[in-house]
Every structure is written in structure tokens, then in C-alpha cells.
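Practice problem 4.
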């Protein structure tokens, strides 16, 4: 009897694993299909300076479902990376973003485009040549592109990262460290990598008004940026109190739901025209 029971347990366990594997396979097939059908799209989240001017936008991937809804990358980005599909999807989306931003940037001289680069893409042997090829195809000004890389991505292959970052910098392309402060890596890499901006991770911003430690860490990151001549950007700014503090501490740029959620390109074009100035004085009197 006990033996039977044991066998049943294994059977259930097996079927759970099998079910998971099948679900994964189904999702992989859907991702391939989505890539072929061009169902991945870019949304854009604007970034602002301390005067309230939009200085650029970050391209964020979305996957449009059959019902029209857009799926955020959380649920599928890991699988895109594991399967290596991230490479072809990234180039597809990068080309699309360049095309969209080309004319927008001609009309708005202070706007730049930020694009997230995953480890799989960075380590791809044709990364630099493909990037340059697309930029030249659209005559996209190099100095108005920013590539966002995480510490984890950079330290996976330090020699390769250094080589690539040096070339990007020689071309005038900006590099920023995304999710800064969460990477558990040595800060000394900042000395060796040419870095243009630090994007302070949103987990620090979220609790900064309640958690003194987070506030102190943010202060330190901003000071470090100032001393190393690196722009500091706060991500995940959701309320006026956070913004006010960040401005007071000398943070250079801001991104978050307070300003705008990630929006479609058409919405971005409107937002650039209508919401150019943020009334910081209004925020101050709210406090
Ligand atoms: P990330 O690059 O750090 O992007 C910021 C994420 O924070 C975005 O999530 C954005 O929607 C969200 N966010 C923005 N403002 C706020 C806020 O005020 N509060 C909160 N709670 N969240 C905010 P999203 O779009 O779901 O993207 C998640 C991550 O997926 C990105 O993190 C990035 O690492 C990755 N990702 C997105 N698009 C791409 C892409 O095209 N290529 C690659 N390689 N990775 C991408
Ligand atoms: Mg990013
Ligand atoms: Mg980030
Ligand atoms: Mg993040």
C-alpha cells in the first residue's frame, strides 16, 4: 500500500513537471510567433530634468495579446533571454525605435532615446556592427542614444564589456547603469567603465520617505555621481514628496509614474508638446 502511495506521489510530481514544461514550451512557441508577426512593441517612458523639461524617453518592450491588451516584460523577458530570442526581438524593436525617434528628435533637439541592452545581446559577436549598421541606416545621431546596462550584465564578461563600452564611447554613444545599487558588484568598475549616467533603482526611491537608510544610500549615490561627473537619474518616482527630496539632494533627472507611465509613441508625441513644464512650485506648496 505504502509503495502504491509512493508511486502515486511520483506520478503526480511527474505530471506537475510535465505540465510546467508544456506550459513553457507553449510560451516559447508563442514568443516565436509573436516575433514573426511583429507583435512586440515599444512603449516609451519620458525622463525629465530638474527644471521639468523632458530630456528623453526609455523604450520599454510590450507584447500585444490577441485581445489587444499589452503584456509587460516581467512574465516573458526571462524566457526571451533563455531561448536567445531576445537578440532578434531586440534588433527588431531597436530598428523600430530608431525609425520613430529619428523625426521626433529632429523636431525636439533635447530629446534622446534610451534602450535596454540585455547580457545576451551585449555578448553577441555582431553587437557593435549591427548597432552601427542600424544607426547609420536611419542617420540616427550617436550622441542622442543611451544604452542602459545593469551591473550584472557588465560584470558577466568584464573584458568584453570594457571593449564594447570603449567603442561605444568613442562613437559618442552614452552608456548608463540601470537598477544601480542592486547589483552587489564592486564600485571600482565605475573607474574602468566609461559611464554617462547612473539610474538609481526604484526600490530605493519607493521607501525613501519612510526608510532613513534608503535615503542615506540615495544621498551617497548622488554624491558619488557628482564627484565622478556622472549624471544621476532616479527611476520609479511616484509622488511629489520623493521628487522634492531628490531635487533637494541634487539628483539630475527623473522618471516615474508621477510624470508619466510608459506610453505609446503617438501619446509620447502629444506629451512632448503639451506637458513640457512640470510645476515644481506647486509640489512644494503641497507639502
Ligand atoms: P527597467 O529598465 O529598470 O525599466 C523600468 C521599469 O519600471 C519598467 O517596467 C517601468 O514600466 C517601471 N516603472 C516606471 N516608472 C515606475 C514607477 O513610478 N513605479 C514603479 N513601480 N515602476 C515603474 P517594465 O516596462 O515592466 O520593464 C521591466 C524590465 O524589463 C525593465 O526594467 C528592463 O530591465 C526590461 N526590459 C524592458 N524592455 C526591454 C527591452 O526592450 N530590452 C531588454 N533587454 N529589456 C527590457
Ligand atoms: Mg532601463
Ligand atoms: Mg531600472
Ligand atoms: Mg528594473
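Answer key:
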Amino acid at each position: 500500500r505504502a509503495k502504491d502511495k509512493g508511486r502515486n506521489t511520483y506520478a503526480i510530481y511527474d505530471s506537475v513537471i510535465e505540465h510546467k514544461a508544456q506550459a513553457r514550451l507553449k510560451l516559447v512557441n508563442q514568443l516565436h510567433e509573436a516575433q514573426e508577426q511583429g507583435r512586440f512593441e515599444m512603449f516609451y517612458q519620458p525622463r525629465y530634468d530638474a527644471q521639468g523639461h523632458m530630456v528623453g524617453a526609455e523604450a520599454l518592450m510590450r507584447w500585444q495579446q490577441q485581445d489587444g491588451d499589452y503584456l509587460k516584460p516581467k512574465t516573458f523577458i526571462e524566457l526571451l533571454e533563455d531561448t536567445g530570442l531576445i537578440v532578434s526581438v531586440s534588433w527588431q524593436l531597436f530598428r523600430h525605435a530608431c525609425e520613430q525617434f529619428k523625426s521626433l528628435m529632429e523636431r525636439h533637439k533635447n530629446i534622446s532615446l534610451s534602450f535596454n541592452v540585455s547580457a545576451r545581446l551585449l555578448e553577441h559577436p555582431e553587437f557593435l556592427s549591427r548597432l552601427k549598421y542600424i544607426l547609420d541606416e536611419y542617420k540616427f545621431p550617436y550622441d542622442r542614444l543611451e544604452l542602459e546596462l545593469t551591473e550584472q550584465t557588465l560584470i558577466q564578461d568584464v573584458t568584453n564589456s570594457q571593449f564594447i563600452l570603449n567603442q561605444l564611447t568613442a562613437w559618442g554613444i552614452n552608456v548608463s547603469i540601470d537598477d544601480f545599487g542592486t547589483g552587489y558588484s564592486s564600485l571600482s568598475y565605475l573607474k574602468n567603465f566609461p559611464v554617462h549616467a547612473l539610474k538609481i533603482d526604484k526600490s530605493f526611491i519607493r521607501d525613501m520617505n519612510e526608510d532613513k537608510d534608503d535615503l542615506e544610500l540615495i544621498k551617497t549615490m548622488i554624491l558619488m555621481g557628482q564627484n565622478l561627473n556622472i549624471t544621476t537619474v532616479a527611476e520609479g518616482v511616484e509622488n511629489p514628496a520623493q521628487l522634492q527630496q531628490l531635487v533637494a539632494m541634487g539628483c539630475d533627472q527623473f522618471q516615474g509614474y508621477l510624470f508619466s507611465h510608459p506610453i505609446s509613441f503617438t501619446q509620447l508625441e502629444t506629451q512632448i508638446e503639451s506637458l513640457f513644464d512640470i510645476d515644481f512650485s506647486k509640489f512644494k506648496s503641497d507639502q
